[in-house]
Prior knowledge:
The structure holds two protein chains of two kinds.
Chain A: E1 4-7, E2 10-13, E3 19-25, E4 31-37, E5 43-50, E6 53-57, E7 64-70, E8 73-78, E9 87-96, E10 102-106, E11 110-114
Parallel strand pairs in A: 2-11
Antiparallel strand pairs in A: 1-3, 3-8, 4-5, 4-9, 5-6, 7-8, 9-10, 9-11
Chain B: E1 3-7, E2 10-14, E3 19-26, E4 32-38, E5 44-50, E6 56-58, E7 64-68, E8 73-78, E9 87-94, E10 103-104, E11 108-113
Parallel strand pairs in B: 2-11
Antiparallel strand pairs in B: 1-3, 3-8, 4-5, 4-9, 6-7, 7-8, 9-10, 9-11
Amino acid sequence: DTAVSQTPKYLVTQMGNDKSIKCEQNLGHDTMYWYKQDSKKFLKIMFSYNNKELIINETVPNRFSPKSPDKAHLNLHINSLELGDSAVYFCASSQDDREGSYGYTFGSGTRLTVV
Amino acid sequence: AQSVTQLGSHVSVSEGALVLLRCNYSSSVPPYLFWYVQYPNQGLQLLLKYTSAATLVKGINGFEAEFKKSETSFHLTKPSAHMSDAAEYFCAVSERQAGTALIFGKGTTLSVSS
């Protein structure tokens, strides 16, 4: 069973379109995240949700809107796609485990290409 | 704000040689520290993490890292490199609080030659 699953794995779309990426985790974690990895491999946090509540909202264009229908799902909707949105988007989840440490689990990523 | 700096965007070693990837963190309090590996066109895999237990942390695939508070460092090492170790390596930091995001360094590309 996949712990953090993202769909689709690849997404090619034209400029100006609206698209969504879905993420689901079956780990029972309370917090979920979206990261963007650019062409230089740099990973940057975009959003985080804790129990469906927005916790982190970094400087991201408002064309990006996260939605969390329940604590196991965090979707990312992108309006009016631009060439610069091309990147790999990673979903992740975390939980403070009993040993007092954190487990962050990442999905396999969605490669978005805007043409 | 917390941050990590990975010294050296590219590291090249010969097969069998020591691997040393450097990471320094900036934090007002001791954070949690992580090393992740990313193979080409794949996701992120956790190598090891420091969460205030032993300062020498052993991870998967023969990697280990030592937390040195005095040097604010968490360097990753492996005694003998394998060709299969060629990948992108990321150091990351988080606060000691549930629900805080991982902050990543810019990554180090490890190349291994035969």
